Each structure stands twice: as structure tokens, then as C-alpha cells.
Fold each of these.
Amino acid sequence: MRPLALIWMALGLAACTIPTSSNTESTASESPAAPETAVASPTPFEFSGPEKELARSRYQLDIDFDYAAQVLSVWEQIDYINSSDGVLSELLLVVEADWQGATFELRDAVWGDGTAIETVARETSALLIPLKAPLGAGDSLRLALHFDLELAQKPGILGYTTRQSNFADWYPFVPPRDETSWILHGPGPAGEHLVYESADFEVLLRVHNAPEELVVAAPAPAEVIRGGTRYVLTGARRFAWSASADYTVLESEASGVTLAAYVFPEHLEAGQASLSVSRAALELYEGLFGEYPYESLAIVEADFPDGMESDGLFWLYRGFFDDFEGAQNYLTSLSAHEVAHNWWFGAVGNDPALEPWLDEALALYSERLYYEALYPEQVDAWWEFRILRFSPTGAVDSNIYAHTGFASYVQAAYFRGALFLDALRQKMGDVAFFSFLRDYFEAGRGEIVNADVFFALLGEYELVGLDDIVGEYFAER
Ligand SMILES: [Zn+2]
């Protein structure tokens, strides 16, 4: 195949919030010994599956994972549906690896008719591909990319440590659009910055040069085929996974959903506790909000601080597994929190850079609902432990760039956000409040919502005094 013409230039992505500060320096990589065998890539690429009648965009990812080298070689087939109202002349793909210190190298790119994509412009955190013909609203196109991704040795959701390899946002994906441009933000001082359309994922993973004990934690049931393992995840924001030779797997089941905790051997008892919390939380939220959106849920002990949600999988810091006595601890509250993100992030999407409270306040308030249902006598203690002792300040509707660091961001979007939701509930009464949450889930499922949608739905309840509550917590509503 003809080599790609990579155009290295400033793209002038005016609508994008791409910070100019350099935070893309990769951590010095201490790669283990070279792999025993080179990993061959399948070429020429054979497209698979029907091109039409997709409910949403589809990503098919065929991975060769060289564990010893911590390198993925991937063929990615994208069936993209233009869900915007406008006509597209180019396609933007997000390359988050650039912000995470990983090395992304595009090797090949082809259109669905098998012809080479000759021009791909490369910018920090993005690829821009001019289209051969305009793509109208609702129309679809097919292309495939072949790329290598080398992880940096650093703790985090895209990186490896001596204990695990983590893969979130490891493949290029097409972000949503607003009226005029692609929605692509750069990292802020805290919080998440990527916005995702809901999409379908089919992943085929082959692992090479790995110890026999290697275990893969994935967000969907595994099916062994063609010398690899296949996963299908539908209606999801992203496909994240993790691999470690250190995981012990603990399993459970709730409402037909398979739950599995992937924990380090020193934390089996705590892993069981997190699994139990997750199971109870999943059942509770199904009753309160609506159906759990996926077939399985993986709880992954993380070799990096805090927690991170993804569809059908979340990471939770190993430090939280050290202390789980009783119910007032971060293992319990954050397990309940991360499970809730499958509703408030996974099913109902939002822009976490500009309106982080939409998913975070709801996930935090869902913790409270968990305690209310499971440990009603401890709800007050939970408020104090989780929120009130920090005397939170800040506008609920501040974006991630408005903060200087994690503490003020969490106080505003999470803590004040949860206090706002509680004030709202007091004003509405339980029947109307939970009816509203179900309305919001139904309206937002598979969509990307914003505060206008939240308040428009709320407006249907004709609350007297809503303005006072909003005025107390929000800066610009
Ligand atoms: Zn959260």
C-alpha cells in the first residue's frame, strides 16, 4: 500500500479547546526485553460486517497486544454515522494518547472501497481526514486505520506499571459535533475532558509475549475465537480494558448482569466487599433510574489514585482496598459512585469538561441513595464524611478550566452539586424527584445532554421556588 502523506501542520482548530501548555512529555519508558517474535499485521485489510443499518457508529478493533513491549498493533474499522445536522467535508479523530504520554503511530489508512486514504493531517491529539465526498446528515462512511500504540510506563488509565496495563481512550474516535465544529477539549487542571457519542464496539484481542497468568479485565463478556478473545459492547461511550498477571478474579451476578472484580492478591477480602457493594448498587439503581445498560461490569483494582469510570468497567485505587471496615470508607462509597456512572456517563452522556456536574453530582448523590437504602442509619455520617467536613464552596456549573486543581473542582461540581440535588429533592418530594430522574435517564439515554435539557425536564414539574435553589448553587442560570 502507498505510504500515507502525513501533513504536519497547525490545523487552526478554532473551536477546539486545545491548551498550548506542553503536557505531552512522555515518561521515560523502561520497556522490557524485545519481543521474541514480530507481530504480523493483517494486510491488506478486509472489511467485515454490514455497512448499513447500524443504529449508531461502530468501531471494530482488531488488536495484537505485545505484552513484553507494551505495544498494541491495531486495525481499526470505523463505520461512522454523521449524527449532526450539518454536511461534513472532513473527519476529525481524537488521539488522546498524545495527552497521556503514549506513542501513537499511524501506519496505514484505507477507505471502505479499499483505496488508500492519501492525506491525514496530524495535530496534537487529533487526526484530520478530508473526505472524498461531502457526508450529509444521517449518512455513513467506512474507513480503516492501522496504528501502533506504545504505552508509557506511568500510573493511569492509559499506561502501565509493574502491576498492570490500562487502556482507556487508546484508539482514535470521532467526537460529537455542535452546530459548527467538533467538540474536542484539552485536559484541564482536574476532571475529564473528552466527550463521546454513544457507539458500538467489537474488539478482537490477541496477546503475545505474555506470562500465562495474564488476565484481561474487559467491559463485556469474553468469547474465545480465532486464536483471540472477542468482546462486543453496544451503546457505550468507550471501550476500556486492563491486563495484569496479578489479578485474582472474584465473580458475582445481579439482575442477569455478570460482575467481576479484578483485584491484587493482598486485597481479596476488600475485593469481595467492593463486589458486594457494586452488586447491591447495581440492583438499587436499576430500580431507581432504569435498566443497567450493559451485559457485565468489571471492577478493576487500580495502581493509580482515585477512581475512573468507563462503560461496564471502572478502576478503583488500591489504597481504598486497604481500609474497608464498616460502611464509612471510600471503598464502599466510591464503588457505589462508579457503578452509578454507568447511568450518568455511560447511558446519559454529557460534556464533562464544560458541565462536569451533570454526571458527577448525580454519581455522588447516587452514593447517598446507596447509603439510604443499605445503611439508613449512616446517611448523616456519610454526608459528614464525604461532603460537609470539607465545607464546600464554588458554583455547581463551573467548568474544569475554572479551577486551579482537584480540590476546588470536586467541591464545586461534586459536593455542591450533590447538595443542590438534595435541596431539589427536598423541594420536589421523593415521588416527583425520582420520577424526574427516570425522565432524565430516558431522555438522555444514548444522547449527549446538557444543563438545558436537565432544566427543561425539571420545568415540567412546575416547582415553586426552584429559582431560589438554582440561584444559591449556580453562577450562570
Ligand atoms: Zn465520578
Note: Residues 309, 337, 341, 360, 363 surround zinc ion (CB under 6 Å).
Amino acid sequence: MEKKVIGLLVVSCLLAGCRCRQGSVPAEPVQPVAAEAAFVPVFSAEPIPAAVETRMRGVSYPENAGISLSDLRYLRLSYVDFEGHEQVGELVCNKAIADDLVAIFRGLYEARYPIRSIRLIDDFGGDDEASMAADNTSCFNYRKKTGMRELSKHALGLAVDINPFENPYVRPSRVRPSGASAFADRARDFPHKIDEEDLCYQLFRAHGFSWGGTWRSVQDYQHFEK
Ligand SMILES: [Zn+2]
């Protein structure tokens, strides 16, 4: 009986990598059991990498005289999605606001502020409507203002749209993205609504951005620009 117990102990020691049989030989420090791979948040800004340029050319970045690629930065930003999971998103912005955005998104992440997704508009073929319909947060897209000839601040990478489905662009005649009309009524309370009490609003304002939610003729609740 006793022999069997000792035998079991030896076997279990061997299985566990136990060093009890090494006598007086100094044991090496035992490696800690590998913890569950911890999520390491990332908040980086760098010149547009070649692979990202390939994705952008002819999509968000057509041939143009307005902005050079060297004025843009590629950001990787950790965020917490609507299901509470940590994710890493991609965003392209003007180098003039790269530090602001890194600080703002770090603040949002630390507060576990929910963001649906942060993907380049190129993943949506440069189609702003498609990106908004997917509730995607984005920044740079070389395009004109909605329904106008003038370039949008997005064309310079100086505007960011956050959770656009719950925070649509509202004209008296039309709500964009289509399907988001229910979120045009800002007297109503619902999750992910940006208003002046909202952390996202407060962080962007603290960094000198203006908010489209207080524009007069149209309201663009998703939109912050500098
Ligand atoms: Zn916008």
C-alpha cells in the first residue's frame, strides 16, 4: 500500500516537473505557470506602412492634390467592443491630431467605453455609408462633404466619426446611415448615445475638437473635428 503511494508520488512529481529528486543540486528557478495570455493594450502612431498604403491607394487615398501620404499617420488603438471584449483597431488620421487621438482613445479604453469597431474605411471600399451602416468608427477618407462640393475634414484626416449608427448624421429630410432613424431622436435615452455628458464628447472637447452634434442646419452626432 505504502509502496503504491510513494510510486504515485514519484509519478506525479515527474509529471509536474518536480525537482524533489535532485538532492542537493541547486534547483533552477521554477518557471511560473504560463498565465492566460494577457491582453496588452496598444496605442501606436507611425507613418503609413507600405502594406497600409497598398490598401489605401485608389480607395480612401485617390490621386489628389490635397494631402500627401506623409501628412498621414497609421494608428493602432486598443478599445473595448460592445460585448466587453478588448480589441485592437486601425485608424488613419492627419499627423497633426495623431497624439490627440492616441490620448483620447487611451482614455476611452481605460474607462472601458464601448466602441463597435475601428477599421479603415478601405475595408468598406471607401464607402462612408457602408462604414456607418456597420457602425464603424473611422477618420481619414478623401471625400467631399456629404451632398456638397467642398472637401470634408475627413479628407484631411482631421475628423473622426464614433459609433455612427447610434450617432447618425441628421438632416430634416434624411438620416444617415439609412436605418438609423430611431437614433435621430436625441431626447430618447439609449446605449452608446453621444451627448454632452458623454466621456467621448468630453475627451474630444478637452483636446480642442468641435462636435457635429451642435451644428445648426444639420446635426452630425458621430462627428468630431479639429
Ligand atoms: Zn464625420
Note: Residues 154, 159, 161, 220, 223 surround zinc ion (CB under 6 Å).
